[in-house]
């Protein structure tokens, strides 16, 4: 795939995620993807491979949030094998009904039409304040 196709793939995936359908985004990831969450939160580390991402990141996140995560992307920048996505949470609530609508920047590197590396930047203070809150 070329730069334009990579960008279109993520535009579609994020359009679906804005509606609560995360499947196209998950399908855009390579099986051995490396996903790094920046910062010094309990969520911050590099997850390697879809099984680790589900077990250590998305699964635990799902136990904190009501329903599917919704992200509305508002900017896509693509160059060579990289696509950068700026997005904002849209209508996400924790199980305690606390709003969690973080602002994100995802830097994605593609290999053979799949996201091979993803670096996630966000408001880490909001992560600690809302996601790490004890019941």
Question: What summary fits the major beta sheet?
Answer: 6 strands, mixed
In DSSP terms, counting alpha (H) and pi (I) runs of 4 or more, how many helices? 4
| Termini separation | 45 Å
Range of strand content: 35-45%
Radius of gyration: 14 Å
Tell me the overall shape: globular
User: What structural category arises from helix and sheet content?
Assistant: alpha+beta
The number of strands is 6
Task: Provide the fold topology.
Layout (H helix, E strand, L loop, with lengths): L2 H15 L5 H6 E9 L7 E4 L1 H15 L6 E9 L2 E8 L13 E9 L2 E9 L1 H8 L4
Parallel strand pairs: 1-6
Antiparallel strand pairs: 1-2, 3-4, 4-5, 5-6
Question: What characteristics describe this protein?
Answer:
135 residues, alpha+beta, Nuclear Transport Factor 2, Chain: A, six-stranded mixed sheet, 4 helices, 6 strands, globular
Task: Walk me through the structure.
With 135 residues, this protein is α+β, with helices and mostly antiparallel strands. The chain has a single domain (3-131), classed as Nuclear Transport Factor 2, Chain: A. 33% of the residues lie in helices and 36% in strands. The chain has a six-stranded mixed beta sheet. Strand 3 and strand 4 form a beta hairpin. The longest helix has 15 residues, at 3-17. The protein is globular, with a radius of gyration of 14 Å. The mean pLDDT is 95.
């Amino acid at each position: 795939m070329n730069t334009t196709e990579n960008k279109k793939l993520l535009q579609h995936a994020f359009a679906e995620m804005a509606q609560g359908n995360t499947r196209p985004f998950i399908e855009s990831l390579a099986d051995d993807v490396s996903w790094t969450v920046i910062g010094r939160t309990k969520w911050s580390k590099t997850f390697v491979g879809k099984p680790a991402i589900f077990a250590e990141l998305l699964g635990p996140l799902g136990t904190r949030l009501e329903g599917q995560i919704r992200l509305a992307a508002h900017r896509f920048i693509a160059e060579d094998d990289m696509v950068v996505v700026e997005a904002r949470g849209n209508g996400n609530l924790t199980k305690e009904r606390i709003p969690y609508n973080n602002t994100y920047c995802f830097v994605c590197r593609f290999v053979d039409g799949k996201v091979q590396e993803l670096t996630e930047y966000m408001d880490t203070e909001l992560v600690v304040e809302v996601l790490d809150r004890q019941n």
